[in-house]
Amino acid sequence: MLPIALLVCSNLFMTVAWYGHLKFTDKPLWVVVLASWGIALVEYCFAVPANRLGFAQGYTVGQLKIIQEVITLLVFAGFATLVLGEKLKWNHAAAFACMVGAVAFIFADDIRL
């Protein structure tokens, strides 16, 4: 569970780094790039241990990646609606359903029938 919690923290920082500057369009690009790099450094401080711990606990690299992608989609959807004021639409739900399918496929080797 710790790798997943660390990936959530990582994605919160990464989403702010990648999209938070859209709230500050009056700032010069070089300023928001430097600020984003600083925020991304914190993101890596969560992502690297999350992946190392998860791998040590038996997750495959593919499983860690798809977990990260699902978390990214959830964090992004929350950020887009709460911070940027965008509305979620049917295609967002469809994209998430595809991600759920990807999770099922990547973990299929672990399912014993």
Characterise this structure.
The protein has helices at 2-19, 29-56, 61-82, 90-106. It has 113 residues and is an all-alpha fold. The protein has one domain. It is flat. The protein starts with a helix and ends in a 7-residue tail after the last helix. The relative contact order is 0.15.
Overall domain count? 1
Succession of helices and strands: HHHH
- Any idea what the shape is? flat
Mean pLDDT figure: 90
How much strand? Answer: under 5%
* Extended strand count: 0
Biggest β-sheet: count, sense, barrel?
Answer: none
What gap, in angstroms, lies between the N and C termini? 25 Å
Instruction: Give the low-confidence spans.
Output: none
Return Rg in Å.
Answer: 16 Å
Count every helix, treating DSSP H or I runs of 4 or more residues as helices: 4
> What helical percentage do the residues reach?
over 70%
Quickly give the structural class. Answer: mainly alpha
Layout: helices, strands, pairs:
Elements: H1 2-19, H2 29-56, H3 61-82, H4 90-106
Summarize the structure.
75% of the residues lie in helices and 0% in strands. The chain has helices at 2-19, 29-56, 61-82, 90-106.
